[in-house]
Amino acid sequence: MTKFMWKFAPIAALCIATAQALPAPAANGLRLYREHCMACHRADGRGGMHFGRVVSADLRAPGLERTYRHDDALIERAILHGRDEDGEPLDAPMPHWAGRLDVRQVRDIVAYLHTLRAGRR
Ligand code: HEC
Question: What is the pTM of this model?
Fold first, then answer.
């Protein structure tokens, strides 16, 4: 048993280090993401869940950054007001978060989204 635990100690240490490595805004964003977004966009942000004919978006970089032209203000607008990169309405059931999350919280979530990378795992 003790041998077994020692074998995994470095992995546990690495996990703790990774969580601590997130800067404060992204760490707060992770907490908010888990609470409000994960159910539809999955824990790793890859989305792909079907709601009728609508599919939840992949929120990982670099796809999301490319779609929104590396403009965080556009990503914030998508989250707060449900508008895509061209200002067109996003499809339901993507909620509009204005009134439920403030701009600062949304910025923290965006900071967290930038830590999610497609193809990492
Ligand atoms: C009830 C399910 C649901 C929840 C909860 C949800 N989303 Fe979505 N989201 C969607 C769907 C479905 C789409 C795709 C809409 C479309 O294609 O027009 C989407 C689209 C998006 C987009 C646009 C991506 C793109 O490529 O244009 C962003 C950004 C986004 N969601 C972020 C979030 C964030 C951040 C949260 C949490 C605060 C959240 N979503 C919570 C379902 C959800």
Answer: 0.87
**Which protein residues touch ligand 1 with a CB less than 6 Å away?**
36-37, 39-41, 51, 54, 56-57, 59, 64, 67, 75, 78-79, 84, 90-91, 93-95, 97, 109
Domain locations in the chain?
Answer: 24-113
How far away, in angstroms, is 18 Cα from ligand 1 center? 26
Map tokens 């635990």 to a residue.
5
Structure tokens at 34: 């888990």
Instruction: Tell me how far apart the alpha carbons of residues 107 and 121 are, in angstroms, rounded to a whole number.
Output: 25
Kindly indicate whether the domain formed by 24-113 is annotated with CATH number 1.10.760.10. Answer: yes
DSSP 8-state code for residue 47: -
Q: Could you read off the pLDDT of 42-85 as tens digits, one per residue? A: 999 999 999 999 999 999 999 999 999 999 999 999 999 999 99
Per-residue confidence (pLDDT) for residue 119, from 0 to 100: 79
